[in-house]
Specification:
The protein is α/β, with parallel strands linked by helices. It has one domain (4-246): TIM Barrel (Alpha-Beta Barrel). 45% of the residues lie in helices and 17% in strands. The chain has eleven helices and ten strands. β2, α2 (37-47) and β3 (53-57) form a beta-alpha-beta unit. The protein is globular, with a radius of gyration of 17 Å. It binds zinc ion.
Length: 247
């Protein structure tokens, strides 16, 4: 059984090359998200001789206001990889003009992904799940992962109905609301993420090397009918199914 991390900012680690080497050595499937098209090339290069690291083209919602001009570049680069993210919307403490621009960028990106087909998207949805779900819709021709979901139960249920996946990280497992959300998600939609280096365990930055610990902890929270190892296996199988032929 291989572990996985569907949302990790490899390029923002203190030593990305060393971290990449360890990920490959430990065979942890990693979706290495990026925050803008101009920085994608570095991660693409880091991943070029690696089986387990998948470079992901992104435009972080909180950077859209200053980097809106990169949206066209994003669309032009879309065929370079199957993996898309970090993208999304963030409506936490945002002025209306900023959020409006985010929506415009997100709509263009989602449309380009739908046209391309078979993309795997890892999406940020803080205080914006309703708009995300409206834009992505119920029959997106690709795979949708809502990363670090924290919005309402009504939107959660809609996202589940639409077939989206949810990637779970350490802070979610250690907050009451996070745990409540996790327990409402069907087991076959759960995936693991670290969101390192934005998350820490004590003083240690999270990396995919710790994804197995998150998976074990998640299994212990959700196991009722299944044994722990069955739960872990189901979560790993989810990732294998997500990638399909690219696993
Ligand atoms: Zn992130």
């Amino acid at each position: 059984m291989n572990y996985h991390d569907t949302h990790f900012h490899l390029d923002l680690m203190p030593s990305p090359e060393e971290t990449a080497r360890l990920i490959e050595q430990q065979k942890i499937y990693t979706i290495a998200v990026t925050n803008s098209p101009t920085v994608f090339f570095y991660t693409e290069k880091l991943a070029s001789d690696k089986k387990y690291i998948r470079p992901s083209l992104g435009l972080h919602p909180e950077l859209v206001a200053e980097r809106y001009t990169e949206v066209n570049q994003f669309v032009q680069m879309i065929s370079r990889t199957r993996y898309i993210g970090e993208i999304g919307l963030d409506n936490h403490n945002k002025v209306p003009a900023d959020y409006k621009l985010q929506k415009k960028a997100f709509e263009k990106i989602v449309l380009a992904c739908a046209d391309a087909g078979e993309k795997i998207l890892t999406i940020h949805s803080r205080r914006a799940a309703r708009d995300i779900i409206d834009i992505v819709g119920p029959s997106f021709p690709g795979k949708i992962i809502l990363h670090w979901y924290s919005d309402t139960e009504a939107q959660l249920q809609k996202a589940i109905k639409n077939g989206y996946y949810f990637s779970i990280n350490h802070p979610m497992l250690h907050s009451k609301t996070g745990e409540e959300i996790i327990k409402k998600i069907p087991i076959e939609r759960l995936l693991i993420e670290t969101d390192g280096p934005f998350t820490k365990r004590g003083d240690e930055l999270f990396t995919p090397l710790m994804a197995g610990d998150i998976q074990k902890e998640l299994a212990s929270i959700i196991s009722t009918d299944n044994t722990l190892s069955d739960c872990e296996k189901i979560i790993s199988d989810n990732f294998e199914r997500l990638l399909g032929k690219d696993y």
